[in-house]
Write a sequence for this structure.
């Protein structure tokens, strides 16, 4: 191991080892805080609760975050069918989704919360990719609770019209 | 991550297995042809393919793993707090790194050991393919990663560890392999596989150049469009609400700057720094003529055609909008494409002139190739215009059955398009084509039998004949169908107007070029048919010769099949007169010299062949 390329290799090996050790250390040290639980009575906390419910596949609980008016417009069956399979509710092979709070600001008589969703995918060899998109949630305080008043992600397309009375 | 991941991992290895199979096939074929320099005992092709194939796969597993780890680390330390997150990425990164890295180290160490034991192994084709394949893939990855990193540094988007991890890891892999090939590139026997290196150089230069041109185009387009909107449209968002700088320095401009900078870096590194002086390479000529010059010229022709079409459509066609500002809104985009296209065309043509003047006799060939390329571009434009004219004429002469319900002036815009293509195509084709025809009258047999002329004429004749056959078949099918079903009428002309238009145009083009071929054949005496092409000597040759010896230099050039750089002797001196046998002997001496560079000193005593090497 005397040539320049051998020394380079040795250096690369040390750097790789350092990255592995540092990643594991950071993961272990920050494990309790890896996911900061925000207060549930805030708009951001409501968005977090909703996304956690979607991720866990707790569709009924997630549906409860929609305002009564929105629930009338968007029936449960449609909501369930369109939230199934997103994020972690179905094992996603080699994919990992991370959600970070981007902003929270007043909009008319409600609050607009923006989050950045980042999907990390690996398909060895050579293919590694990360894709992020910003999603906006509009909430209002109704009967003391923050509720979505506009279709929340992943219901980004129209809900079916409710059956009209005679 | 679980067992379900494994089938996907193995499936993703299929393209890789194909690459390995191609590498094995190329290696075996080259060795069978007997041109391999691997005459030493070596470790054998299969062992080599195993070492480098496994190294390649392991690298492709370890690097994404390392990126996953570094991304996780950076996001955890510097990223915004996560509302939702998991340790999946960490697990995935650890798994790939812990499997891929030792596997790569082991196989690379085995390969390294064989190189230390048998130095000729450093020049093995499998090793070269591994090195330049890794360099090619990682250079592309770095380019993409750097664009994202620069966009973030210029203020587009928020912090993301991936933007740092991705270019950093691929950059490290690239730097290691680049350094290795740089050191090995100076060894003996390297020139045998120079084509692998050149393939990497010119491919990477090409997309670097495309990135540079696209980036510059975006950077020009954004302020031009802002200026156009300010000058010619009603501003709803008044100045003051958004500052002029904010109107220009948008995400699109930032992306343009990032693409241009990364493209410029990649192009400069590979084209200016690495491939400089590689004037005798065939791949360089392909890059220059087929992509850089033709690409630049085609961009200019298309941009000018759109510009002319917009103007003619406004005056004699049916514009999409009655407001001039709306109709000409594509103007900034056209100008933004026109400027980089013209610069590409001009720069590379100037470079070709400069490089070809270094070697005696090459300037004529370069000029010829250039003229035929631009003539082909003009002919393509002109031919498309002719088809459009025919379509309009047929549509007017044989109108569709039934009453016209919509737009009785449908022919205006197609006619404008036809006129535009003819106005651009006719001068371009006629200037360059009749220019080469005049050269043929003066230059005689050498011009008529030149490779570029034959490629052009046979190429155009072949394509036109294929078009004739395809459209004649389609036309005959429609005719017979209507005839047998008893529906034959003049409406067939309407239905088959595209086929008839292309048939007439391609028929005329193929007939004209067939006549040109006949003229060339008649003008070439039977004894002066071009000889079988000489197998080029793969050496960089410089001749030190006096003015009277230039004829001999040209004779040597045609015998060697390669350009000779000439240094003129200022002390005069006579030129020797060599017989065919003596010329062949000089060729054999040049072929037999060690190394890849040769200096010929020509004086009355004859031709001295001196191999040399730069230190």
């Amino acid at each position: 191991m005397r040539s320049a390329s051998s020394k380079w290799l040795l250096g690369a090996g040390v750097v790789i080892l350092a990255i592995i050790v540092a990643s594991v250390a950071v993961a272990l040290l920050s494990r309790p805080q890896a996911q900061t639980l925000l207060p549930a009575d805030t708009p951001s906390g409501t968005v977090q609760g909703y996304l956690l419910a979607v991720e866990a596949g707790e569709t009924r609980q997630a549906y409860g975050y929609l305002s009564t008016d929105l629930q009338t417009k968007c029936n449960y069956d449609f909501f369930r069918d369109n939230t199934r399979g997103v994020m972690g509710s179905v094992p996603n092979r080699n994919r990992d989704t991370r959600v970070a709070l981007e902003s929270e600001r007043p909009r008319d008589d409600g609050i607009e919360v923006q989050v950045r969703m980042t999907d990390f995918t690996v398909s060895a060899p050579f293919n590694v990719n990360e894709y992020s998109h910003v999603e906006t949630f509009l909430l209002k305080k109704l009967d003391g609770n923050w509720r979505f008043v506009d279709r929340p992600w992943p219901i980004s397309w129209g809900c079916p019209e409710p059956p009209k009375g005679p | 991550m679980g067992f379900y991941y494994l089938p996907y991992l193995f499936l993703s290895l299929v393209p890789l297995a194909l690459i390995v199979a191609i590498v094995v096939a190329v290696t075996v074929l080259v060795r069978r042809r007997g041109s391999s320099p691997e005459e030493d005992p070596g470790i054998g092709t299969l062992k080599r393919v195993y070492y480098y194939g496994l190294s390649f796969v392991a690298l492709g597993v370890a690097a994404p793993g390392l990126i996953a780890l570094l991304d996780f680390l950076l996001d955890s330390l510097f990223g915004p707090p996560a509302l939702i997150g998991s340790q999946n990425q960490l697990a995935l990164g650890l798994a790939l790194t812990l499997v891929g890295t030792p596997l790569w180290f082991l196989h690379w160490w085995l390969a390294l050991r064989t190189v230390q034991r048998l130095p000729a192994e450093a020049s093995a084709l499998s090793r070269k393919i591994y090195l330049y394949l890794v360099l090619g893939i990682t250079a592309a990855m770095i380019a993409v990663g750097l664009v994202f990193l620069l966009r973030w540094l210029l203020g587009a988007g928020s912090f993301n560890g991936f933007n740092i991890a991705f270019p950093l890891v691929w950059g490290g892999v690239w730097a290691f392999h680049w350094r290795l090939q740089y050191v090995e590139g100076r060894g003996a026997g390297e020139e045998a596989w120079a084509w692998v290196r050149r393939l990497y150089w010119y491919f990477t230069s090409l997309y670097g150049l495309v990135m540079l041109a696209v980036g510059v185009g975006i950077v020009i387009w954004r302020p031009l469009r802002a200026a156009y909107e300010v000058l010619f449209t009603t501003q709803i968002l008044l100045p003051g609400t958004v500052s002029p700088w904010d109107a220009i320095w948008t995400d699109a401009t930032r992306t343009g700057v990032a693409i241009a900078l990364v493209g410029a870096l990649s192009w400069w590194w590979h084209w200016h720094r690495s491939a400089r002086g590689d004037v005798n390479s065939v791949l360089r000529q392909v890059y220059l003529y087929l992509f850089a010059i033709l690409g630049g010229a085609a961009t200019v022709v298309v941009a000018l055609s759109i510009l002319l079409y917009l103007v003619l459509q406004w005056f004699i066609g049916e514009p999409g909008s009655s407001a001039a500002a709306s109709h000409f809104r594509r103007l900034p985009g056209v100008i933004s494409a026109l400027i980089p296209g013209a610069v590409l065309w001009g720069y590379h043509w100037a470079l070709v002139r400069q490089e070809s003047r270094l070697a005696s006799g090459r300037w004529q060939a370069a000029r010829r190739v250039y003229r035929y390329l631009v003539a082909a571009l003009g002919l393509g434009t002109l031919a498309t215009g002719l088809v459009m004219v025919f379509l309009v004429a047929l549509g007017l002469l044989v109108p569709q059955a039934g009453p016209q319900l919509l737009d009785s002036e449908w022919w205006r815009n197609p006619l404008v398009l036809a006129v535009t293509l003819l106005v651009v195509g006719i001068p371009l084709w006629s200037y360059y084509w009749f220019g080469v025809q005049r050269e043929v009258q003066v230059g005689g047999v050498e011009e008529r039998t030149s490779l570029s002329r034959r490629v052009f004429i046979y190429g155009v004749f072949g394509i036109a004949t294929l078009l004739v056959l395809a459209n004649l078949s389609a036309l005959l099918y429609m005719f017979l169908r209507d005839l047998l079903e008893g529906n034959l009428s003049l409406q067939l002309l309407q239905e088959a107007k595209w086929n008839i238009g292309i048939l007439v145009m391609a028929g005329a083009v193929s007939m004209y070029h067939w006549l040109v071929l006949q003229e060339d054949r008649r003008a070439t005496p039977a004894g002066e048919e071009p000889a079988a092409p000489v197998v080029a000597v793969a050496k960089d040759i410089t001749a030190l010769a006096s003015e009277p010896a230039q004829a001999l230099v040209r004779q040597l050039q045609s015998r060697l099949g390669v350009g000779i750089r000439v240094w003129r002797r200022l002390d005069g001196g006579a030129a020797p007169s060599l017989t065919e046998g003596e010329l062949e002997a000089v060729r054999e001496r040049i072929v037999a010299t060690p190394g890849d560079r040769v200096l010929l000193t020509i004086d009355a005593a004859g031709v001295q062949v001196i191999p040399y090497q730069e230190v």
